[in-house]
Specification:
Elements (H helix, E strand, L loop, with lengths): L1 H23 L3 H13 L1 H11 L7 H6 L2 H15 L13 H8 L4 E10 L1 H13 L4 E6 L6 H15 L3 E6 L9 H9 L3 E4 L15 E2 L3 E4 L3 E5 L17 E2 L1 E6 L3 H16 L17 E8 L7 H12 L3 E5 L3 E2 L2 H12 L3 E7 L5 H14 L5 E5 L3 E2 L3 E4 L3 E5 L3 E2 H6 E9 L1 H16 L2 E2 L2 H5 L3 H11 L6
Parallel strand pairs: 2-3, 3-4, 5-19, 8-15, 11-13, 12-18, 13-14
Antiparallel strand pairs: 1-9, 1-10, 2-6, 6-7, 7-9, 10-19, 11-16, 14-20, 16-17, 17-19
Length: 471
């Protein structure tokens, strides 16, 4: 009797999971793969489906909609303050319409951008900026470690909190799983509010373990923000035992576009705590520059697949040059097709990836995609020095994107990410010079050479490719 009951339960769970997969899985291929797995090996596939098969992050939108009475006046104030900085329609870039629709925001002028290359300049700038805070500091990182760099950031936040500045800190509990209780306690005792993002918060979300908050945002007083690839750990300042030097890129953003980064943090905080923060929404022009910029926050709670569409749009916009630097190259099919088309229409498409990777699984999956795209004229390069972790896209001579998006399915579809897009020839020129320097030290990655490697290597690349999220 017991075995019959267990068997019946498995059948019911398999059928329930199958119906859910048919209704919610993003692609027909993904739905079919799950159906085959659920009915051929249900005991294994049922828990895997509910852990990894979900593509939409439940509850996030509802968390801030519950505060709409408070959010509406804030949004009106922010939008009203930003109107004076909106780029006139007759001066807009041809790509603005699509990007603004994806961002639910407006490209603004009056911004300045400082390009921060590698860890020490980045965290020197962040710590210096935190020290100047008079009202509040917002901090959000995927990885936070209780090590030398982590304690350096902690001490800067503790000093400001004790001076009466409101400090709010969000971290991803999976990326920061090793963060010590003592680290948190030292911040809390100083008055810092530090919380986990909480992807599995709420009883209906217990299986949302395949989602991450991968954003890296610091905001000071609503006027200055830092966005980029760096997390908080000693490896990011070149102290990894093996992957040293650590190559990464961040930016310091000053001006009206900071409010868009602040809005992304506010919604994350609302999800994590169920509360809103009392923040300033006055748009202030940078005194040192007049760049056009847009901050785009993407995530699995969006109505459309914003991360994927953002990068496909940038690739489709390219006419002369499309340079990409990414540690993980496992692109979603639509983005891969956009890269191929760009190369086929004569665009100089270059993809810079690390020679040494912190994930062998991703490394082999990347090799498979390099082989698949090899016949279209894309130039692949490997950065041989330590580990290259930067996430940078350069389009032609006037658009640069620096942020947290890797070129993979996870960043495009499953992670909460953020990027700063700058529409400025001078800034794009600085990014081009940075990438040219990186490429000077890179070695070519030949797709034909990968295809000629031993059978075990080719099998490994194909097996690794199967580990991309099944949806």
């Amino acid at each position: 009797m017991l075995w019959a009951l267990l068997g019946f339960s498995v059948v019911v769970l398999a059928l329930t999971s199958a119906f859910h997969a048919i209704l919610r899985t993003r692609t027909a291929q993904g739905a079919m793969a799950w159906l085959v797995a659920l009915f051929s090996m249900p005991i294994l596939a049922i828990p895997l489906y509910w852990l990894f098969g979900r593509r939409h992050f439940a509850g996030y939108t509802q968390s801030w909609r519950a505060h709409m009475d408070e959010l509406r006046p804030l949004a009106r104030v922010a939008q009203g303050n930003l109107e004076a900085f909106h780029v006139p329609e007759d001066a807009r870039h041809p790509t603005y319409t699509g990007l603004q629709a994806l961002a639910h925001g407006q490209v603004t002028r009056g911004n300045d951008i400082e390009l921060l290359i590698d860890g020490e300049p980045t965290f020197a700038s962040i710590v210096e900026g935190i020290a100047k805070a008079t009202r509040y500091v917002l901090v959000e990182f995927y990885i936070v470690r209780d090590d030398g760099l982590g304690r350096r950031l902690r001490d800067a936040l503790v000093e400001r909190a004790r001076a009466g500045v409101a400090v709010s800190f969000v971290y991803d509990e999976q990326g920061s799983s090793s963060l010590s209780k003592a680290y948190r306690r030292s911040l809390e005792e100083a008055g810092v509010r530090i919380v986990e993002f909480g992807t599995t918060r709420g009883w209906t979300n217990r299986f949302q373990v395949n989602f991450r908050n991968h954003r890296k945002i610091v905001v000071v007083d609503g006027q200055v923000a830092w966005i980029g690839g760096h997390n908080v750990g000693d490896e990011y300042v070149g102290l990894h035992k093996k992957l040293t030097p650590w190559r990464d890129t961040h930016i310091r953003l000053e001006g009206p576009a900071v409010l868009e980064a602040q809005a992304a943090f506010l919604l994350d905080w609302c999800w994590a705590t169920g509360e809103l923060l009392d923040l300033e929404w006055e748009a202030v022009a940078s005194p040192t520059g007049d760049r056009q910029a847009l901050v785009v926050a993407t995530g699995p709670a969006d109505e459309v697949e914003t991360g994927k569409l953002l990068h496909a749009h940038l690739a489709n916009r390219a006419q002369r040059r499309l340079w990409i630097a990414t540690p993980y190259f496992v692109p979603e099919p639509a983005v891969a097709a956009a890269l191929q088309l760009a190369a086929l229409r004569g665009v100089d498409v270059r993809v810079l990836v690390p020679l040494h990777n912190d994930s062998q699984l991703v490394r082999f999956a990347s090799y498979w995609h390099v082989q698949e795209l090899g016949g279209s004229g894309i130039q692949f390069l490997q950065y041989p020095r330590g580990f290259m972790h930067q996430k940078v896209v350069l389009v032609d001579d006037d658009i640069a994107s620096i942020g947290t998006h890797n070129f993979d399915n996870r960043s495009f579809l499953l992670n909460f990410e953020v990027a700063a897009l700058v529409f400025d020839r001078e800034v794009a020129g600085r990014v081009a010079a940075m990438l040219e320097h990186d490429m000077e030290h890179a070695v070519p990655l030949d797709p034909a050479g990968l295809a000629a490697r031993p059978l075990w290597f080719r099998l490994a690349t194909r097996a690794a490719r199967l580990m991309a999220p099944v949806q």
